Amino acid sequence: MRRSPQSQRWIWVAVTGYRATYQEEGESARERERARESFEKSKEESYVAADMDLRSELLKSIWYGFTALDVEKSGKVSKSQLKVLSHNLCTVLAIPHDPVALEEHFRDDDDGPVSSQGYMPYLNKYILDKVEDGCFVKEQVDELCWTLTAKKNYKPEKDNKNNLPGKDAFRLWCLFNFLSEDKYPLVMVPDEVEYLLKKMCMAMSVELNCVELEDFISQDAVQQNGFTVWSFLEMMNSGKLTRGINQEITSMAIEEVYREIVGDVLKEGYLWKKGQLRRNWKERWFTLRPSILSYYTTEERKDCQGNIPLDKNCFVDVLPDRDGKRCMFCLKTLSKTYEMSASDTKQRQEWTAAIQTAIRLHSEGKTSLHKDLKLKRREQREQRERRRLAKEEELQRLRALQEEKERKLAELELLKEAQRQAQALLEHDELRRRKQHEEMQAALEVQLREAEESRASMQAEMVLKEEEAARQRKRIKELEAMQESLEEALQQEIKARQDEEVFRYAQTGLLTEEEEKMKALMALQEEQEEYILKTQREKQELRQEMENKSRALEEAQRQLEEVRANRYRVDQDVVAAQRKLRQASTNVKHWNVQMNRLMRPIGPGGMSPYTQSTPTPSHLLLHASSGNHTHLGLPFLWRAS
User: Fold this and answer.
1) Lowest mean per-residue pLDDT among 24-38, 150-164, 193-207, 217-231
2) Dihedral through CA 423, CA 426, CA 431, CA 436, nearest 10?
3) Considering the entire predicted model, what is its pTM?
4) Pick from 50, 219, 230, 238: which is nearest to 149 by CA?
5) Residue 543 pLDDT > 60, yes or no?
6) What whole-number distance in Å separates Cα of residue 551 and Cα of residue 555?
7) Which of the residue ranges 41-55, 202-216, 545-559 would you say has the lowest mean pLDDT?
8) 34, 53, 21, 3: which is closest to 366 by C-alpha?
9) Angle formed by the axes of helices 79-92 and 29-69, nearest 10°
10) C-alpha–C-alpha distance, residues 334 and 14, integer Å
11) 582-589, long-range: CB within 8 Å, 24+ apart, which pairs?
């Protein structure tokens, strides 16, 4: 898109001020050049962003106009309707219209209606690329597209007293397009709907009925897909959100919000302004936008008295009361200083803050405050969504860790239970051994009491018992060593399970990476299949075109053969005519000879026998000369003397 002369003029002023500032500071030429290049680069980036925003806003309105022409909801529109739509768009966008361009663009497409994807290249090349910012009225484009789409889609109930007037519905449609997401079909998320309704309620000085709004948002269609413009208008026409509010107040609030958001009006109101020449004070209606401060005679804004351009060189300063005026402030530009007076201190503070905001937006290369706010709200929603997803992932990870911990605790309980069972078995064996030892000791005492006389034999038995006791003690030590080895094995198994868990996490990461690579491979495969299908279609079209040309060539050859045959027949006829002509010429020469013989004069010696016997010819004679045949009349008859 090309920039308007007015925007180029303000760019020149900004660049001139920029150069003058650096010359006063006395910096080197190299630093000035680097700063200038940086400024030009940021300026171009800001204009590219502004052009993209303008194209995006235009496409939203044009999308409604295109879908309104799609009566059968097939996604395609006839070429005749697209011609009318393109002509009207060129008219409202103030660009020349080429009526032949659409036919030439779709000359090779004979399939009938055109889809939105097929119309987009023509729209970008012949219409949107020629649009100049500032040379047309965006509201006229919106009115054209609203007129097309409202006839088809906007059908309020006839008996409903809460129906919005057509102008209010159009402004709400424009607000919806401004706040909707840059995805088609266009929808608006519930947060943006709530933001818009709060702005309207703030303009009406009422509280938003959140209960009715939540009831409407809780519907399944709204939760899944968001608000469409028609469901939004249906909600506004229901009157539940504006219950008990006068229709005129609602219209004024809609107009105020429309001018603020869509019209980029940062602030409006009456201020006293001091003249530049006569130095008298007059009350004017001021309208502040990000790049300009305009003032009018009245709030109807019909008679513009002047415009004050805003750039990074402008600044606002508070002035003391004088000349019978209070709450004064001034706006200083490179060339002039404008003195103004507000009604009270609050208004002065609001106006100075708003003008500083406009200067900041212009210095940052931003053309709209609410576009910047919309982007910030979108980033906040995305951050909330990312935090929510991260929180869900963290909860899932904690659940997995909790489940893993519970599983390990269960395994540990099983190990403890096994250890308790082993301890119980050891205690049982120890009791059994003690019982056996007691029984053996009792038996020994009985034997000692019964056989004191056989002490020698008893001593031998005691030695055997001591050996048995030694073996038992050795067995006990072996069991204790076995218990220690079992505990070491238990610790090793726990460590092995921990290592296995670490390996399992690593394996999960590898599987995730492999899945991402597989997705990328599938995406490449789909692109390759699409390219193959496209190539096959192009081959089929080329083959069909070659067949058509072959048939045309065969038809031309057949016609050429017919022409050659006709020419041959004509040549034969010419040869036969020439032969007949030569034969006729020969006959004429023969008759001329005979005639000359008959016309020879008769001498006075009498009549020749031939003359006497041959009658005098009374008809015309033929005479051949140079291949041409003429009829000659006899001048006289020869008579016999």
Assistant:
1) 24-38
2) 180
3) 0.54
4) 230
5) yes
6) 6
7) 41-55
8) 53
9) 140
10) 10
11) 584/629, 585/624, 585/627, 585/629, 588/622, 588/623, 588/624, 588/629, 589/624
